[in-house]
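Hello forum,

I keep getting stuck at the same step: I have a sequence, I want structure tokens, and every attempt I make locally crashes halfway through. Rather than fight my setup again tonight, could one of you with a working pipeline run this one for me? It's a single chain of 237 residues.
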Amino acid sequence: MSNFTCLLLPLWIWSLSGSAARAQAIEFATFDVVPYVLHDDPEDRSGLFLDFNKAISDRAGMPHVSTVLPIARAMKNVETGVSDCLISASSPRATEKLLPVAVIIENIDAVIVTSPGIPITRIEDLHGKRLAIPRGSFRNFSITTDPHIEWHLTNDYVQSVRLLKAGRVQSIAGSEFSIFFYFSVENIEREDVGGILRLKRGPLWLHCSKERLSGDLIEKLRQSTDALRCAARGRGF
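Reply #2:
Ran it on my machine without issues. Output:
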């Protein structure tokens, strides 16, 4: 997106906010994954995705509701029209089942982290090793389709990290944000792990149901998200 477009977007959103708001709130399905959602946070923070949901809706002048769900359930709710939208990385499943509305963050990493003494420079280095991944993630990725990798589904990131810490798996995969957050919670330092391989880098998107929202509402959400991204870029993020 050009800088000129970024300058125009706030004026566009201002004009949209004066139109009649949707009577029913936009319903976000939100992954119950730290730090996207935080529970009982000592600093009373809600979580990254909950804050994004609120900022996008407020900027568009629309009420919203965020329902926190396991990853697989959140995806299914938007696919089937139970919920309106969610925030997720781009994936083959999201591209096929959902409507990509707007980029929120231009680059977010998915990584693989190994146990101490286990280097990794390619996926094949996981052959013969146990890999922990959160349930509902990495469908149709090479790490789950390679027959030589023994992958183990976990309920969440904290379980994956604790399995790695206890030596019950030799590697874990997932969002860099979430893995490193739990490393800090579990007091895991850089010397406590082995290699780190970037599995995928790509944008974080606002995705919505293909059937549930009108074209006008989708456009309001798109313009709101674009304006917020431009504003963040202007602050150096």
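The first strand starts at residue 26 and ends at 31. If your local run keeps crashing, start a new thread with the error log.
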